[in-house]
Amino acid sequence: MCMSKNTLTMPLHNTQMLSGNIGCYICKHLNYQSVAKLSYSRLRHLVPKRCMSSQAEDFSSEVETSLQKADTSGKYVAKKSLPKLKEPIVKNFFLGKLERSMLVYPELTKEELDQVNSVVAPIEKMFSEIDSKSIDANAKIPEDVLQQLKDFGLFGLQIPEQYGGLNLSSTAYARVTEVTSTDGSIAVTLAAHQSIGLKGILIAGTEIQKEKYLPKLASGENIAAFCLTEPSSGSDVASIKTRATLSEDGKYWILNGSKIWISNGSIADVFTVFAKTEIKTSEGETQEKITAFIVERAFGGITSGKPEDKLGIRGSNTCEVHFDNTRVPTENVLGEVGNGFKLAMHILNSGRFSMGSGGAGVLKKLINLTAQHAITRSQFGEKLSSFGLIKEKFAKMAISVYAMESMSYLTAHIMDDYLDPDMSIESAVIKIFSSESCWNCVSECLQIMGGSGYTKDLPHERYLRDSRIMQIFEGTNEILRLFVALQGLQFAGRSMKDTFLKLRDPHQNPLLMFKKRFRRSMGKAIIASTEPDLFEEVHLELEKEARILSSCLVSLGMAVEDILPLYGNKVVNEQMKLRRLADIAIDLYAMLACIGRASRSYCIGLKNSDHEVLLTRSFCYEADQRIKRNIYELTLPGESKIEIDDINRLIADIMFKSNGYAAEHPLARNW
Amino acid sequence: MPQSNHDVLYFVVDIDYFYMFYYFSLFYYRLCVSSLPTSSKKMLSLPSKLMNHAIAKQPLKHMLSKHLLAAEVWHKRTLSSKSNGITDTNLKNSVNGKKSVEMKQEPTLSSVDKARQMNLKNQVIDSSLPNHDPQRITSESRKLEVKAKSLLKQIANEKGTDKAAFLYAINTYISQETLYRRGAVEFIYSAMHEMKTFGVNRDLTAYKALLQVFPEGKMIPRNIWQVEFMHYPRQQQCGIDMLEQMEVNGVIPDDEFGVLLKNRFGSTAHVTRKYLRMMYWLPKFKNINPYPIPYILPTDPIQIALFMLKRMCVDQETKYSVLKTTELEENSTQEDTYIVSAQSPIQQELLSKHNCNLPLFVEGPYPVYLRYLQKHYFLLRAEPNIKILRQKKQQEIEEEKEKNMFEWINFFDEDYKSIKPVVSVHEQEDSTILALCITGTCSKSSVQTWIRWLEKSNPNLTTTPVLFKLLSEDHEMEVIGDNRAFQEQST
Asked: ECSIT C-terminal domain spans which residues (chain B) (predicted)?
C-alpha cells in the first residue's frame, strides 16, 4: 500500500498488474485530479475485473492459463476466462468481513454499453406507447401487443443466440427489465415465461431438450409457465402433492395433481412441472423426491381453471392448472430424477435479482410524473416543491431507488464477471429491499398526488396495486428473510466452528471469555477481529460512509457472536432474531452498493455525481440508524432491557388463543 | 363417582380462579398458624357437622377439607373481629341452637356426648343463623327467625320458587315492617339460607333487594369510636355474611350495591370496608381464568357437553359434532340419547396413519366439571407413538453434538420434514389422543355407537381392533373386547 498522500507512487499491486505508472481510480492516495484524467473504463480495461490486492496475482495467472488454453484449442472460450468468486459477499457480512475490492463498482465496456442501449432504445419507445390502463381494466394483454413483444425478442432475452434468443448478459437483462416493468402485467408475463418458466431448460436441460424447446420459446411462439405452487404447499415447496409415476413400460411418467396461481397458466404451451416421484436410494429404500418435468400442453390431460381476478397485475394470466394422467416421455425429465427440489430453488434464486432494476424502472417513471405535479401545483401561494415535507418524501424515494438500482446492477455485474457465482442470497436481499421500497415509494407518490392519486384517472393506484405482489410472489419476504439470515449464520458457524464451540462453553475457555470481554470493551468482536479499512477503497468524499459500513459490519459480527453460541442449532427457531439479522444484512449490502457506485460516479465525474454522494450519505445515515436499532434489540437482555421479541410473542399467543384481537373494548366494564 | 364428596370438595375441583387464589392464601395462613401454640390453634375450631363428615371419609380429603374449613372459619372471624372470647366451654354450653366443636375432637365419644351432638346437629340444620357469637342469639331472635322462615315458606308455596317470588317476599317483609324493620337480621339470614331454593343465589339484584331490608341512615356511625367498635354489630355482621355468601357464589357487587351499603352503614363501617376490599380484588380475579366459564351456564345438556369438550380440546381446529343415537342406529332397542364428539383434522390424520394391527382403546368414563356441573367423557386413544417421540428426542441430542453444530436442516432443504419430526399436540408421552366424546347416558352402547359413527369419517377405524376399557360405577374396570362385525369376518 502506498503510504504517502502526496506522491503519485503506485500501490504495489497495481504496478504489478499494470506494469505502468497509471493509478487505480479508487486509490485515494492518488490525487484524484490525476485520476480524473484517466477514464474509468480504460482503467478497467487495464485492470480487467477488480483491483484486488490479495487476488491480483492469482487473477493474472488465471488469465494467463485461460489464454494458453485458448491458444491450444484455437478457439476463445469466454466462460473459462472468468475468475471464480473467492468469498461470498453477504454471507461474509455475518463474520463481519468484506472484501475491500467489492467497493469497486463494476462497469460495462463501451461496446457492451452501446450494445445494451441499442437493444433498449426501441423497447423503450414501444413501451411508451402501450396503454397500460386498458390492459389493467380489461385484464388482458392485447394480441398485437404480445406480437410486438415477440417481435422485439423479449421472450428470449437470456436464451443463447444459437437457439434464436438475444443471449443478454445479466446486466443487460436487468436493464431491459427496467423498461418492461413499466407495465406490471407485461413484466409478470415475461418474467413467468423466461425468468422462471424456461429457466429450468436453460439451467438443467439436455442439448436435445434445448434444441427442441428453446427456439420456439425464444420467438414467443410457445409460452412457458412454472408450475410449483399447490393448494397445500406455498412456501413449503417440499410438501407438494402432485405425483408422477413411471408407466409399466418405463417410457412415460404419468402426472397427476393440480397446481394453483400459475402465471401464464392458460396461455402457456410448455410447463416446467414439479412432482413427487419415488426413487430408490443406494441402500435400496424408496424415497419420495421431487423431480422436474417439461410438459407440453399437447401431451393431453392438462386443463386450466378460469383466470384469477387479482388485485394488481390484472393483465397477466394467473390460473389453476390440473394434470390428469398426463403422459410425459422419460426424455422430458429436467435434470436428474429426484433432483427437482434443488432445481426449483436454483431457478427461483436466479430469477429474483432483476426485481430490483424492474422496481427501480417503475419508480423512476412514477417519480418523474409526481415531480411534475409537485413543480406545477400551488398551495398557500407556494409550489408543492417548496414544502419541506414534500422535499423529504422525494429525497427518501430517490434514496430507495438509488439503493435498489445500485444493488441490482452490482449483483448482475458479479453474475456476469465471475464463473457461476452463488448470488442467491444477494438476489433475495434485492428482492426484499426493492419490493418493500417499491410499495412504500408508490404509496408516497400517491400521497403527494393527494385525492387525485386515489382515483383511476392517474396511474398511481394501478402501480400501487401492481407493486403489492412483489412482496408475495417468488418467495414471500418473510421466508426470504429467514433464508438470508439462516444461510448467513450457517456459513459463519461452519467457517468458525471451533471458535463458536469454545464460546458456547465459557467455563472451559476462560481465556477466550476474557479476550471477548476485552475486545468488546474496544468495540470489537472475536470473530470480526479487525475492522475492515474500507475507506481506503473509496473516494475521500465518502470516507465517512465507508467507516459507517465498517463499524456496522463489526457490530453484525458481534451480534452473530452473541447469538450463535447462545442458541446453537436452535437459532433456526428464533425467527424474530433472524429477521433482525437479515434486515441488518440487507442494509449492509445496500450500503455497500451505494458507496461503491457513488464513489465510482464521483471519481469519473458523472453528471450529478455530487447528488449521488448526497444520496449515499443520506442512505448510510438511515441504514446506520436502522442497524443500530436492530443491534440494540438483538443483543441479549442485559441490565434493564425489555425483551421486545418475547413481549410480541406473548401478545400473539394470547391473540391466537382468543381467535384474534384479544383486548376488551374500551367501553367495556368489569362490573 | 360418589356424589357426597363433592359437597365438601366442589369448590376445590370446580375452579373459578379467584376462588383458588382466595383459598390458597387462606390455606397458606393455616400453615403458618400450625406453628402456633395449641391455645391459639383452638381458635380455629370447626363446625363439627362438617368435621365428622370429613373424618369419616378418606384421610386425604379429610385433611384438605379440614384446612379449608378452618381457613374459612378463621376468615369469618378475622373479618368480624370476634375471634377472641370464644372458648370451648361457652361453645358447648350455648343452648341457643348454636354450637361449635373443637377441632381436635376425640374419635370415640361417650354415648351421652354423641346423643347431645346429634341433638345439636339437628338444631343446627334448622337454623339459618350463623354461629359467630352464640351469646347474642336470644330466644327472641329465634322467634323472629321462625317468623321470617314461615313468611318465605308461605310465599314459596303461593308463588313458587323463583326470583319474582323472592323479591315479593322481601317486599312483603318491608311493607309489614314499615318503620323499625324489626328482625331484619333474622329475615336476611333466613332469606340468604333460602336463596338457593329460590334459584337466586348467583343473582346480584336479589342481593341488592335483600340489602334494602336494612333501614337507611339509622346505622351510620357518627364518630370514629363508633366505627372502630362496630356500630350495630349484628347488622354489620349480617352484611358481612351476605358479602361472604356472594363471594362464595361468585357474585361480584357493583357500584349500586356500594351506594346501598353506604346509605345504610356509612362509608367507614366494617361491612363497607369489606365491600371495598372485595371490589379491589374480585374484579381482578374475574377474568383471570384462562379457560373461562360463562357466568350463566347453559341448561341444555348438549350445550354443556359441548362446552366441556371445547375447554378440553386445545387444538383450535377441532370439529365438534352433535349426534342422536336413534338417528344413527336402526336398531330400535338402542336408547335415545345424545353424543357430542370432538375430533380435529390432525387427529383424523393420525388415525388414518395408525397401524391397523395395533389396537385402539376407548377409555372412560372420566369425570369433567363445569363449575358445579359434572359429566363424564370418553376418549379414543392409541398407544404413544414412541418412534416419533424417540426420534424427536434423538434429534435434540444429535443437534447438541459438536460435529452436528451448525449443520442444521431448515425448510430450504427437501428432507426437512423427514428428518425433523413434527409432533402434534395430540401425541403425548403417555398416549396419542384420537377423539373425545361425551354421551348422555355414559353407557357402553352409546360409546359403541360413537365408534361406529367415527368409522364413517375414519375408514381406518373399521379395520382396527378397538378395546373398550370402561370404568363402572364402583371404579372397577370392565374391559370389553371388540365384537364388531369385522371381527366376525376375519374369524
From this structure: 344-471
